[in-house]
From TrEMBL, chain A:
It comes from Antarctobacter heliothermus. The chain crosses the membrane at residues 12-37, 43-64, 96-117, 123-150, 157-178, 190-213. GO terms for biological process: cytochrome c biosynthetic process; cytochrome complex assembly. This is Heme exporter protein B. It is a multi-pass membrane protein. The lineage of its organism: Bacteria, Pseudomonadati, Pseudomonadota, Alphaproteobacteria, Rhodobacterales. Required for the export of heme to the periplasm for the biogenesis of c-type cytochromes. It is found in: Cell inner membrane. It comes from the Bacteria.
Automatic annotation (TrEMBL), chain B:
It is found in: Cell inner membrane; Membrane. It holds the Pfam family Cytochrom_C_asm. One of its GO terms (biological process) is cytochrome complex assembly. Signal peptide: none annotated. Keywords: Cell inner membrane, Cell membrane, Cytochrome c-type biogenesis, Membrane, Transmembrane, Transmembrane helix, Transport. Belongs to the CcmC/CycZ/HelC family. Its main location: membrane. This is Heme exporter protein C.
Length: 218, 249
Protein backbone atom coordinates (compact mmCIF):
# COMPACT_ATOMS: atom_id res chain seq x y z
CA UNK A 1 0.00 0.00 0.00
CA UNK A 2 2.83 2.33 0.85
CA UNK A 3 4.54 1.40 -2.40
CA UNK A 4 1.35 2.29 -4.27
CA UNK A 5 1.09 5.56 -2.41
CA UNK A 6 4.66 6.60 -3.16
CA UNK A 7 4.23 5.55 -6.78
CA UNK A 8 1.10 7.69 -7.15
CA UNK A 9 2.74 10.64 -5.45
CA UNK A 10 5.84 10.37 -7.61
CA UNK A 11 3.75 10.15 -10.76
CA UNK A 12 1.73 13.17 -9.74
CA UNK A 13 4.78 15.28 -9.02
CA UNK A 14 7.03 14.23 -11.89
CA UNK A 15 4.66 13.52 -14.75
CA UNK A 16 1.89 15.48 -16.32
CA UNK A 17 1.96 18.59 -14.17
CA UNK A 18 -1.30 17.70 -12.46
CA UNK A 19 0.27 18.63 -9.19
CA UNK A 20 0.25 22.41 -9.45
CA UNK A 21 -2.74 22.64 -11.73
CA UNK A 22 -5.39 22.45 -9.05
CA UNK A 23 -3.55 25.06 -7.04
CA UNK A 24 -3.28 27.43 -10.02
CA UNK A 25 -6.96 26.97 -10.73
CA UNK A 26 -7.79 27.82 -7.12
CA UNK A 27 -5.71 30.99 -7.41
CA UNK A 28 -7.41 32.05 -10.64
CA UNK A 29 -10.92 31.49 -9.31
CA UNK A 30 -10.09 33.58 -6.27
CA UNK A 31 -8.67 36.35 -8.42
CA UNK A 32 -11.68 36.32 -10.72
CA UNK A 33 -14.19 36.81 -7.93
CA UNK A 34 -13.40 40.49 -7.20
CA UNK A 35 -13.69 41.21 -10.95
CA UNK A 36 -17.17 39.75 -10.93
CA UNK A 37 -18.60 41.17 -7.70
CA UNK A 38 -16.59 44.39 -7.43
CA UNK A 39 -13.63 45.22 -5.20
CA UNK A 40 -15.50 46.62 -2.14
CA UNK A 41 -13.61 45.20 0.80
CA UNK A 42 -16.69 44.91 3.03
CA UNK A 43 -18.49 42.73 0.51
CA UNK A 44 -15.39 40.63 -0.10
CA UNK A 45 -14.92 40.06 3.63
CA UNK A 46 -18.47 38.83 3.80
CA UNK A 47 -18.26 36.34 0.95
CA UNK A 48 -14.61 35.29 1.35
CA UNK A 49 -15.18 32.02 3.28
CA UNK A 50 -17.80 30.79 0.84
CA UNK A 51 -15.77 31.76 -2.21
CA UNK A 52 -12.66 30.05 -0.92
CA UNK A 53 -14.64 26.90 -0.19
CA UNK A 54 -16.20 26.90 -3.65
CA UNK A 55 -12.78 27.47 -5.21
CA UNK A 56 -11.23 24.60 -3.29
CA UNK A 57 -14.14 22.34 -4.17
CA UNK A 58 -13.92 23.11 -7.89
CA UNK A 59 -10.15 22.70 -7.92
CA UNK A 60 -10.66 19.33 -6.27
CA UNK A 61 -13.33 18.38 -8.81
CA UNK A 62 -11.14 19.24 -11.79
CA UNK A 63 -8.39 16.89 -10.75
CA UNK A 64 -10.65 13.93 -9.99
CA UNK A 65 -10.53 12.28 -13.40
CA UNK A 66 -6.77 11.86 -13.01
CA UNK A 67 -7.25 9.45 -10.12
CA UNK A 68 -8.06 6.42 -12.25
CA UNK A 69 -8.01 7.58 -15.88
CA UNK A 70 -4.27 7.19 -16.54
CA UNK A 71 -4.04 3.86 -14.74
CA UNK A 72 -7.10 2.69 -16.65
CA UNK A 73 -5.61 3.61 -19.99
CA UNK A 74 -2.23 1.93 -19.58
CA UNK A 75 -3.71 -1.11 -17.88
CA UNK A 76 -1.99 -0.75 -14.55
CA UNK A 77 -5.41 -0.62 -12.89
CA UNK A 78 -6.01 -4.21 -14.03
CA UNK A 79 -2.65 -5.16 -12.55
CA UNK A 80 -3.55 -3.49 -9.29
CA UNK A 81 -6.87 -5.31 -9.25
CA UNK A 82 -5.13 -8.68 -9.55
CA UNK A 83 -2.57 -7.73 -6.91
CA UNK A 84 -2.97 -9.29 -3.46
CA UNK A 85 -4.21 -5.95 -2.15
CA UNK A 86 -7.96 -5.66 -1.46
CA UNK A 87 -9.72 -3.28 -3.80
CA UNK A 88 -10.92 -1.20 -0.85
CA UNK A 89 -7.29 -0.63 0.10
CA UNK A 90 -6.37 0.45 -3.43
CA UNK A 91 -9.25 2.89 -3.53
CA UNK A 92 -8.37 4.34 -0.13
CA UNK A 93 -4.73 4.80 -1.11
CA UNK A 94 -5.77 6.45 -4.35
CA UNK A 95 -8.00 8.84 -2.41
CA UNK A 96 -5.18 9.57 0.02
CA UNK A 97 -2.74 10.25 -2.82
CA UNK A 98 -5.29 12.57 -4.40
CA UNK A 99 -5.73 14.40 -1.12
CA UNK A 100 -1.98 14.82 -0.61
CA UNK A 101 -1.44 16.12 -4.14
CA UNK A 102 -4.57 18.28 -4.40
CA UNK A 103 -6.32 18.76 -1.07
CA UNK A 104 -3.30 19.48 1.10
CA UNK A 105 -1.85 22.23 -1.15
CA UNK A 106 -5.30 23.81 -1.28
CA UNK A 107 -5.55 23.77 2.50
CA UNK A 108 -2.13 25.38 2.83
CA UNK A 109 -2.80 27.98 0.13
CA UNK A 110 -6.28 28.97 1.29
CA UNK A 111 -5.19 31.33 4.11
CA UNK A 112 -2.87 33.14 1.68
CA UNK A 113 -5.70 33.59 -0.79
CA UNK A 114 -7.83 34.73 2.12
CA UNK A 115 -5.62 37.82 2.26
CA UNK A 116 -6.58 38.62 -1.32
CA UNK A 117 -10.26 38.48 -0.39
CA UNK A 118 -9.79 40.47 2.80
CA UNK A 119 -10.88 37.63 5.07
CA UNK A 120 -11.70 38.70 8.63
CA UNK A 121 -9.04 38.08 11.29
CA UNK A 122 -10.27 34.97 13.15
CA UNK A 123 -11.43 33.49 9.86
CA UNK A 124 -7.94 32.33 8.84
CA UNK A 125 -7.68 29.70 11.52
CA UNK A 126 -11.17 28.35 10.97
CA UNK A 127 -10.87 28.39 7.19
CA UNK A 128 -7.70 26.36 7.53
CA UNK A 129 -9.29 23.95 10.01
CA UNK A 130 -12.49 23.50 8.03
CA UNK A 131 -10.62 22.86 4.79
CA UNK A 132 -8.20 20.50 6.51
CA UNK A 133 -11.17 18.53 7.84
CA UNK A 134 -13.32 18.82 4.74
CA UNK A 135 -10.98 18.21 1.81
CA UNK A 136 -10.38 14.52 2.71
CA UNK A 137 -14.13 14.04 2.37
CA UNK A 138 -14.01 15.75 -1.02
CA UNK A 139 -11.22 13.41 -2.14
CA UNK A 140 -12.98 10.28 -0.92
CA UNK A 141 -16.33 11.22 -2.46
CA UNK A 142 -14.54 12.23 -5.63
CA UNK A 143 -12.81 8.86 -5.80
CA UNK A 144 -16.24 7.26 -5.81
CA UNK A 145 -17.27 9.50 -8.72
CA UNK A 146 -14.04 8.77 -10.57
CA UNK A 147 -14.52 5.03 -10.06
CA UNK A 148 -18.09 5.27 -11.40
CA UNK A 149 -17.07 6.98 -14.63
CA UNK A 150 -13.66 5.44 -15.20
CA UNK A 151 -14.47 3.54 -18.37
CA UNK A 152 -16.51 6.26 -20.06
CA UNK A 153 -15.37 8.39 -22.94
CA UNK A 154 -17.24 11.53 -21.96
CA UNK A 155 -16.77 10.87 -18.27
CA UNK A 156 -15.68 14.32 -17.12
CA UNK A 157 -18.95 16.22 -17.38
CA UNK A 158 -20.97 13.28 -16.18
CA UNK A 159 -18.70 12.96 -13.17
CA UNK A 160 -19.33 16.59 -12.21
CA UNK A 161 -23.05 15.95 -12.40
CA UNK A 162 -22.70 12.88 -10.19
CA UNK A 163 -20.21 14.22 -7.69
CA UNK A 164 -21.43 17.77 -7.08
CA UNK A 165 -24.73 16.77 -5.42
CA UNK A 166 -22.73 14.45 -3.18
CA UNK A 167 -20.54 17.39 -2.21
CA UNK A 168 -23.47 19.40 -0.89
CA UNK A 169 -23.37 18.39 2.81
CA UNK A 170 -19.59 18.79 3.03
CA UNK A 171 -19.76 22.20 1.39
CA UNK A 172 -22.56 23.41 3.63
CA UNK A 173 -20.89 22.42 6.88
CA UNK A 174 -17.41 23.42 5.77
CA UNK A 175 -18.45 26.86 4.58
CA UNK A 176 -20.57 27.26 7.70
CA UNK A 177 -17.55 26.62 9.92
CA UNK A 178 -15.47 29.12 7.95
CA UNK A 179 -18.24 31.74 7.93
CA UNK A 180 -18.99 31.44 11.63
CA UNK A 181 -15.30 31.49 12.39
CA UNK A 182 -14.83 34.66 10.37
CA UNK A 183 -17.74 36.32 12.15
CA UNK A 184 -16.48 35.23 15.54
CA UNK A 185 -19.42 32.94 16.33
CA UNK A 186 -19.32 29.52 17.96
CA UNK A 187 -18.21 26.90 15.44
CA UNK A 188 -18.49 23.72 17.44
CA UNK A 189 -21.67 22.21 15.99
CA UNK A 190 -20.89 22.56 12.27
CA UNK A 191 -17.30 21.57 12.98
CA UNK A 192 -18.43 18.34 14.61
CA UNK A 193 -20.82 17.66 11.74
CA UNK A 194 -18.06 18.29 9.21
CA UNK A 195 -15.71 15.97 11.06
CA UNK A 196 -18.49 13.39 11.21
CA UNK A 197 -19.04 13.54 7.47
CA UNK A 198 -15.33 13.34 6.79
CA UNK A 199 -14.69 10.34 8.98
CA UNK A 200 -17.96 8.70 7.94
CA UNK A 201 -17.26 8.83 4.22
CA UNK A 202 -13.63 7.81 4.74
CA UNK A 203 -14.80 4.75 6.62
CA UNK A 204 -17.72 3.72 4.40
CA UNK A 205 -17.41 5.08 0.89
CA UNK A 206 -14.28 3.08 -0.12
CA UNK A 207 -16.47 -0.03 -0.05
CA UNK A 208 -18.84 1.54 -2.57
CA UNK A 209 -15.95 2.81 -4.69
CA UNK A 210 -14.32 -0.61 -4.65
CA UNK A 211 -17.57 -2.31 -5.63
CA UNK A 212 -18.02 0.12 -8.49
CA UNK A 213 -14.45 -0.30 -9.66
CA UNK A 214 -14.79 -4.08 -9.62
CA UNK A 215 -17.88 -3.78 -11.81
CA UNK A 216 -16.07 -1.49 -14.21
CA UNK A 217 -13.05 -3.79 -14.46
CA UNK A 218 -15.20 -6.86 -15.07
CA UNK B 1 -46.94 -18.20 -5.40
CA UNK B 2 -44.26 -15.72 -4.46
CA UNK B 3 -43.43 -12.21 -5.55
CA UNK B 4 -40.24 -13.46 -7.21
CA UNK B 5 -42.31 -15.03 -9.98
CA UNK B 6 -42.59 -11.54 -11.44
CA UNK B 7 -38.83 -11.52 -11.89
CA UNK B 8 -39.61 -13.49 -15.03
CA UNK B 9 -40.05 -10.82 -17.72
CA UNK B 10 -42.71 -12.78 -19.60
CA UNK B 11 -44.74 -13.25 -16.47
CA UNK B 12 -44.22 -9.61 -15.58
CA UNK B 13 -45.38 -8.36 -18.98
CA UNK B 14 -48.42 -10.60 -18.91
CA UNK B 15 -49.44 -9.45 -15.43
CA UNK B 16 -48.70 -5.83 -16.23
CA UNK B 17 -50.84 -6.11 -19.36
CA UNK B 18 -53.76 -7.23 -17.23
CA UNK B 19 -53.17 -4.65 -14.51
CA UNK B 20 -52.33 -1.64 -16.63
CA UNK B 21 -55.81 -0.69 -17.94
CA UNK B 22 -57.33 -1.00 -14.47
CA UNK B 23 -54.62 0.96 -12.72
CA UNK B 24 -54.74 3.63 -15.40
CA UNK B 25 -58.50 3.84 -15.16
CA UNK B 26 -58.39 4.09 -11.37
CA UNK B 27 -55.67 6.76 -11.59
CA UNK B 28 -57.69 8.80 -14.07
CA UNK B 29 -60.84 8.52 -11.96
CA UNK B 30 -59.02 9.52 -8.77
CA UNK B 31 -57.16 12.39 -10.42
CA UNK B 32 -60.25 13.75 -12.18
CA UNK B 33 -62.39 13.45 -9.05
CA UNK B 34 -59.76 14.82 -6.71
CA UNK B 35 -58.68 17.71 -8.91
CA UNK B 36 -62.14 18.79 -10.08
CA UNK B 37 -63.51 18.50 -6.57
CA UNK B 38 -60.52 20.37 -5.27
CA UNK B 39 -60.46 23.09 -7.89
CA UNK B 40 -64.17 23.83 -8.24
CA UNK B 41 -66.04 22.55 -5.21
CA UNK B 42 -63.98 23.62 -2.24
CA UNK B 43 -64.28 27.06 -0.69
CA UNK B 44 -61.46 29.56 -1.08
CA UNK B 45 -59.23 30.03 1.90
CA UNK B 46 -59.95 33.27 3.70
CA UNK B 47 -56.33 34.36 3.56
CA UNK B 48 -54.80 32.47 0.67
CA UNK B 49 -57.72 32.90 -1.71
CA UNK B 50 -57.81 30.52 -4.64
CA UNK B 51 -54.06 29.86 -4.52
CA UNK B 52 -54.70 27.31 -1.78
CA UNK B 53 -55.95 24.95 -4.47
CA UNK B 54 -52.47 24.36 -5.82
CA UNK B 55 -52.07 22.04 -2.83
CA UNK B 56 -53.85 19.32 -4.80
CA UNK B 57 -50.93 19.19 -7.21
CA UNK B 58 -48.09 20.29 -4.98
CA UNK B 59 -48.37 17.92 -2.05
CA UNK B 60 -48.99 14.68 -3.99
CA UNK B 61 -46.24 15.50 -6.50
CA UNK B 62 -43.76 16.25 -3.74
CA UNK B 63 -44.75 13.06 -1.95
CA UNK B 64 -44.25 10.98 -5.09
CA UNK B 65 -40.92 12.67 -5.84
CA UNK B 66 -39.55 11.21 -2.62
CA UNK B 67 -41.39 7.90 -2.86
CA UNK B 68 -40.13 7.34 -6.40
CA UNK B 69 -36.56 7.50 -5.12
CA UNK B 70 -37.50 5.09 -2.32
CA UNK B 71 -38.95 2.71 -4.89
CA UNK B 72 -35.75 2.98 -6.94
CA UNK B 73 -33.75 2.28 -3.80
CA UNK B 74 -35.71 -0.91 -3.11
CA UNK B 75 -35.55 -2.01 -6.74
CA UNK B 76 -31.79 -1.36 -6.78
CA UNK B 77 -31.32 -3.43 -3.63
CA UNK B 78 -33.28 -6.28 -5.20
CA UNK B 79 -31.10 -6.04 -8.29
CA UNK B 80 -27.90 -6.10 -6.25
CA UNK B 81 -28.98 -8.98 -4.05
CA UNK B 82 -30.99 -11.18 -6.41
CA UNK B 83 -30.08 -9.85 -9.85
CA UNK B 84 -33.56 -9.80 -11.35
CA UNK B 85 -33.45 -7.78 -14.52
CA UNK B 86 -37.04 -6.60 -14.22
CA UNK B 87 -36.14 -4.93 -10.96
CA UNK B 88 -33.24 -2.99 -12.48
CA UNK B 89 -35.41 -1.93 -15.39
CA UNK B 90 -38.17 -0.83 -13.03
CA UNK B 91 -35.68 1.39 -11.20
CA UNK B 92 -34.60 2.84 -14.52
CA UNK B 93 -38.22 3.35 -15.55
CA UNK B 94 -39.07 5.17 -12.32
CA UNK B 95 -36.28 7.75 -12.48
CA UNK B 96 -37.68 10.12 -15.14
CA UNK B 97 -41.12 9.96 -13.51
CA UNK B 98 -39.60 10.90 -10.18
CA UNK B 99 -37.69 13.73 -11.81
CA UNK B 100 -40.87 15.08 -13.41
CA UNK B 101 -42.67 14.86 -10.06
CA UNK B 102 -39.84 16.84 -8.48
CA UNK B 103 -40.20 19.50 -11.17
CA UNK B 104 -43.96 19.63 -10.67
CA UNK B 105 -43.43 20.06 -6.94
CA UNK B 106 -40.89 22.83 -7.47
CA UNK B 107 -42.89 24.68 -10.13
CA UNK B 108 -46.23 24.56 -8.33
CA UNK B 109 -44.44 25.61 -5.17
CA UNK B 110 -42.94 28.60 -6.97
CA UNK B 111 -46.30 29.59 -8.45
CA UNK B 112 -47.86 29.40 -4.99
CA UNK B 113 -44.90 31.11 -3.37
CA UNK B 114 -44.98 34.17 -5.59
CA UNK B 115 -48.28 35.61 -4.24
CA UNK B 116 -47.94 34.05 -0.76
CA UNK B 117 -44.32 34.56 0.21
CA UNK B 118 -43.71 37.32 -2.32
CA UNK B 119 -40.93 35.36 -3.99
CA UNK B 120 -40.62 32.61 -6.55
CA UNK B 121 -37.75 30.96 -4.81
CA UNK B 122 -36.20 31.06 -1.38
CA UNK B 123 -33.17 29.16 -0.17
CA UNK B 124 -35.29 27.31 2.28
CA UNK B 125 -34.30 23.82 3.50
CA UNK B 126 -37.16 21.97 1.86
CA UNK B 127 -36.89 23.82 -1.43
CA UNK B 128 -33.14 23.38 -1.57
CA UNK B 129 -33.35 19.69 -0.77
CA UNK B 130 -35.82 19.21 -3.59
CA UNK B 131 -33.50 20.92 -5.99
CA UNK B 132 -30.68 18.63 -4.87
CA UNK B 133 -32.97 15.62 -5.22
CA UNK B 134 -33.64 16.75 -8.78
CA UNK B 135 -29.89 16.85 -9.42
CA UNK B 136 -29.62 13.31 -8.07
CA UNK B 137 -32.30 12.19 -10.53
CA UNK B 138 -30.45 13.90 -13.37
CA UNK B 139 -27.15 12.24 -12.45
CA UNK B 140 -28.80 8.85 -12.11
CA UNK B 141 -30.47 9.09 -15.52
CA UNK B 142 -27.30 10.42 -17.14
CA UNK B 143 -25.32 7.48 -15.81
CA UNK B 144 -27.86 5.02 -17.23
CA UNK B 145 -27.59 6.71 -20.61
CA UNK B 146 -23.81 6.91 -20.60
CA UNK B 147 -22.99 3.23 -20.12
CA UNK B 148 -23.49 0.90 -23.03
CA UNK B 149 -23.42 -2.49 -21.38
CA UNK B 150 -26.80 -3.08 -19.73
CA UNK B 151 -25.64 -5.14 -16.78
CA UNK B 152 -22.78 -2.81 -15.94
CA UNK B 153 -25.14 0.15 -16.14
CA UNK B 154 -27.62 -1.56 -13.84
CA UNK B 155 -24.86 -2.38 -11.33
CA UNK B 156 -23.34 1.09 -11.31
CA UNK B 157 -26.63 2.95 -11.14
CA UNK B 158 -27.92 0.81 -8.32
CA UNK B 159 -24.83 1.53 -6.26
CA UNK B 160 -25.17 5.21 -7.14
CA UNK B 161 -28.78 5.01 -5.97
CA UNK B 162 -27.72 3.55 -2.61
CA UNK B 163 -25.00 6.13 -2.06
CA UNK B 164 -27.28 8.88 -3.34
CA UNK B 165 -29.98 7.95 -0.83
CA UNK B 166 -27.57 8.36 2.04
CA UNK B 167 -26.40 11.71 0.74
CA UNK B 168 -29.93 12.86 -0.02
CA UNK B 169 -30.88 12.23 3.60
CA UNK B 170 -27.66 13.88 4.74
CA UNK B 171 -28.33 16.94 2.57
CA UNK B 172 -31.79 17.14 4.06
CA UNK B 173 -30.36 17.73 7.52
CA UNK B 174 -27.35 19.72 6.34
CA UNK B 175 -29.55 22.21 4.56
CA UNK B 176 -31.85 22.49 7.54
CA UNK B 177 -28.84 23.43 9.56
CA UNK B 178 -27.66 25.93 7.01
CA UNK B 179 -30.84 27.92 6.78
CA UNK B 180 -33.96 28.15 8.86
CA UNK B 181 -37.06 27.56 6.85
CA UNK B 182 -39.80 29.53 5.24
CA UNK B 183 -41.69 26.46 4.07
CA UNK B 184 -44.38 25.45 6.53
CA UNK B 185 -44.26 22.07 8.22
CA UNK B 186 -46.45 19.24 7.12
CA UNK B 187 -50.07 20.06 7.86
CA UNK B 188 -51.70 17.08 6.24
CA UNK B 189 -51.05 13.85 8.07
CA UNK B 190 -49.66 13.84 11.56
CA UNK B 191 -50.13 11.17 14.16
CA UNK B 192 -50.79 13.76 16.82
CA UNK B 193 -53.32 15.60 14.72
CA UNK B 194 -55.35 12.46 14.20
CA UNK B 195 -55.47 11.42 17.84
CA UNK B 196 -56.12 14.95 18.97
CA UNK B 197 -52.91 15.24 20.96
CA UNK B 198 -51.49 17.73 18.49
CA UNK B 199 -53.26 21.05 18.51
CA UNK B 200 -51.09 22.59 15.81
CA UNK B 201 -52.38 23.82 12.51
CA UNK B 202 -53.93 21.20 10.31
CA UNK B 203 -55.53 21.21 6.93
CA UNK B 204 -59.25 21.66 7.28
CA UNK B 205 -61.47 18.69 6.46
CA UNK B 206 -62.95 20.56 3.53
CA UNK B 207 -59.61 20.34 1.75
CA UNK B 208 -58.56 17.01 3.16
CA UNK B 209 -60.81 14.64 1.21
CA UNK B 210 -60.00 15.90 -2.31
CA UNK B 211 -56.34 16.04 -1.32
CA UNK B 212 -56.41 12.40 -0.26
CA UNK B 213 -58.13 11.39 -3.48
CA UNK B 214 -55.70 13.23 -5.69
CA UNK B 215 -52.82 11.82 -3.61
CA UNK B 216 -54.09 8.30 -4.27
CA UNK B 217 -54.47 9.32 -7.91
CA UNK B 218 -50.82 10.34 -8.06
CA UNK B 219 -49.73 7.04 -6.52
CA UNK B 220 -51.79 5.07 -9.04
CA UNK B 221 -50.51 7.24 -11.87
CA UNK B 222 -46.95 6.52 -10.76
CA UNK B 223 -47.64 2.78 -10.60
CA UNK B 224 -49.24 2.83 -14.04
CA UNK B 225 -46.37 4.78 -15.58
CA UNK B 226 -43.75 2.54 -13.99
CA UNK B 227 -45.53 -0.58 -15.25
CA UNK B 228 -45.80 0.88 -18.72
CA UNK B 229 -42.22 2.09 -18.87
CA UNK B 230 -40.86 -1.16 -17.46
CA UNK B 231 -42.76 -3.07 -20.12
CA UNK B 232 -41.34 -0.75 -22.74
CA UNK B 233 -37.82 -1.26 -21.43
CA UNK B 234 -38.21 -5.05 -21.44
CA UNK B 235 -39.55 -5.00 -24.98
CA UNK B 236 -36.85 -2.62 -26.16
CA UNK B 237 -34.19 -4.88 -24.72
CA UNK B 238 -35.82 -7.93 -26.26
CA UNK B 239 -35.98 -6.31 -29.69
CA UNK B 240 -32.33 -5.33 -29.37
CA UNK B 241 -31.46 -8.93 -28.55
CA UNK B 242 -33.46 -10.17 -31.53
CA UNK B 243 -31.74 -7.71 -33.86
CA UNK B 244 -28.36 -8.76 -32.53
CA UNK B 245 -29.22 -12.41 -33.09
CA UNK B 246 -30.36 -11.62 -36.62
CA UNK B 247 -27.06 -9.95 -37.35
CA UNK B 248 -25.11 -12.86 -35.96
CA UNK B 249 -26.97 -15.39 -38.09
Amino acid sequence: MIALLTRDLRLAVRAGGGFGLGLAFFLIVTVLVPFAVGPQTGLLTQIAPGVLWIGALLACLLSLDRIFALDWEDGSLDLLATAPLPMEGIVSVKALAHWITTGLPLVLAAPLLGVLLNLAGPGYLWLFVSLALGTPALSVIGTFGAALTVGLKRGGLLMSLLVLPLYVPTLIFGAEVARRGAEGLAVQTPLLMLAGISFGVTALLPFASAAVLRINLR
Amino acid sequence: MSIWEYANPVKFIRTADVLLPWVTLAAVICLVTGLIWGFFFTPEDYRQGSTVKIIYLHVPAAMMAINAWMMMLIASLIWIVRRHHVSALAARAAAPIGAVMTVIGLVTGAIWGQPMWGTWWAWDPRLTVFLILFLFYLGYMALWEAIEDDDTAADLTSILCLVGSVFAVLSRYAVQFWNQGLHQGSSVLRAGAVTGADTGEKVSNVYFMPLMISGIGFVLLFVALVLLRTQTEIRARRSRALLARERMA
